[in-house]
Task: structure prediction
Amino acid sequence: MNLPFSIAQRQILRHAAVLSLVFCVTGCASWPRSWGARPCCIQAKPVVHREPVWWHLFDVTVVSQVENSFELARVGRRLFGSPVRAQNLHDGYVGNSAFFTDRDPVELSLEQVRWGPTRPDDVAVAPFTITKPKTEGKTPGLFVTDARGRRYLLKLDPIEAPELLSGAEVVTSKLLYALGYHVPGYEVGFITPGELQIASPATHHDGRGVSPPFTDEALRAIVEPRLRDGVMRVGVTKILEGDILGPARFKRFRDCAEIRALRVAYAWLNNIDAKDHNSLLVWNGRETVGYLIDFGTSLGADAGAAGPKQPCAGWTNIVDLQEASLTFLTLGWHHPTCDVQRNPESSSVGLFSPHVNPDRWKPYAPNLAFQEMTESDARWIARRMARLTRAQITAAVSAGQYHDPADAAYLVNMLEQRRRAIISQYLDDPSQEDPTP
Result:
């Protein structure tokens, strides 16, 4: 005869039923139906509200972290070892999405990797007419039209490091393209002062709400210190075609595998500026495409500091509540493990070491999509990374056009060591995926 359940057993069963119901109903991933039926693809033209950078950083560091702690379904699923799965990862496969194109990295030729999304007609042709200076961010730059009327953004390197930011941005864009992500065309350019002219009027905002003319004197002030043998090296970005809507909110894409797994790709490249504003949604008339942009804080460069990275870049957030709590609880005895003195490899390469651990890697500020990454998401991108070859990495680095071959060789070696460390971390038998011996 079956004995009735005890009160304690009934309570356990009741709690288990409630948890199961919560996990099934509220713990599932969601996708805005107004964007289209296919998760992670945007068939509509959404309205994008651009937040001030300061509010976004406060939001992802404090406000959203508090909100996330009350999402009991997600928290519970993680605690019980069953985190919310990505909506578009099925049997280890991710199809085309807003931010991603499913192309096999091993099928890309060295030429395709070197040029990425840049087409022959995309290469800027002198002379250049300056329409306005770049005022957002800390990296100086110029918006220009070339001889054919095409629009570009010219970004300038730090005076004391004339290859650091432009090289990092170009190389990183090529490698992200090889992994399948949408990026604009980034190239290195060499310009003489005579190839620059100012449109009339060319104005800019100086932070006080006024727009004084951009003068020849202002132009000379930023160009002349950067001349080497009468030539200035710049990073050249082709302005995207289509209706530029504004930055994506990564939180909206937190259940898309390719955005979660971007944490691993960015850890590989140590691209620490992973805030929402370094993405861009563009309506092309048929669908909305998501682009990753602004890679001046990747590899050994730090655009925010206008120089090389610091040792803790990639290991702590700028405002790191976890590290601050540990320091407080230990009465100041705790220090981050990265808190050691290291020197940059060179002024062109900056500080880029072979040490990487995507599970511990941290960008400048928390990325709400990266926090949702699962082992399945990480294995998916690791398999794609394993299908890249050293020759393809070398081709991508060649796009950086480093003057000293030793700098290019150093970057190739560091990227290869970091890549192999990542695929060994996530893949049981990396040799089955790696196309090179």
